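Memo to structure team: turn this sequence into structure tokens by end of day. - J.P.
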Amino acid sequence: MSSNATATPSIHMPLIPALDDDHLTRLFLALALFQLACFVVFIPAWLLDTRILDSAAIWTKPQKFHISLALHFATLAVLAQLLPRDFRTGPLMIIFGYLAAISMIYEFAYIGLKAAQGGRSHFNYDTPAESTAYALMGVGAVLLVFVAMVLAVQIWRKGDRSRKGLWLGSIIGLSTGFALTLLVASTMSSTSRYVGAPLSGGGEVFPFFGWSREYGDLRPSHFVALHLMQTVPLAGYLANRFRWPAIPVVLGVTALQIALCLALFYQALAGQPIWPT
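Reply from structure team:
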């Protein structure tokens, strides 16, 4: 237990004893489970609706978001345990936790609605209403990842340092993932996901992911940036568990993933596909 921990006792969840049964952890875990449930519920629509949009089945985008957001909020629930309960449930984390929750609900509803309508949720400026909706999605996307940055700062200030690898990996993974995600996402929002191809299709694509194999596509870089928030803390956790040197492991995994993210980013900007046909 960190010397920074308060005397407030922890009350662990009956079904997941590793998690404290506090307000913020319940919120993050509920959001993660909600997204997992949505993924299961929408499987029939995903498989049976034969409409294609931008080289992919119409429900593929909502399903990708369900998986990604479930992983994101599950990660936040787990890493929040590094904080003493009083800091985890303080006003700062609660406010940004609920802003992320509201953003998630909006993104879930709009992406699902546009899929049902057969329309595009992203890069859709066809009407003033759709332009406004897309702009609001941008704000929501920032809030969805900004809560990770807030958590990283709190872990740096008050987190449990007894597990050096997990502590360091959480701070670096959440903060670096936040910064790189904003870099790639802002580039996509100001241009397009494709470089050298119309928005309506990237030709032959990777199954499920939908990444173009014929044109430059910024989404692989975005994927790597976003999931720094999981891979680097995991590397730190494994370093603790197997008594590997924590700092070299965390910094090495971070450097490799940043290099991969930037390589994919500049490859896409050069108009080259991640895996040519």
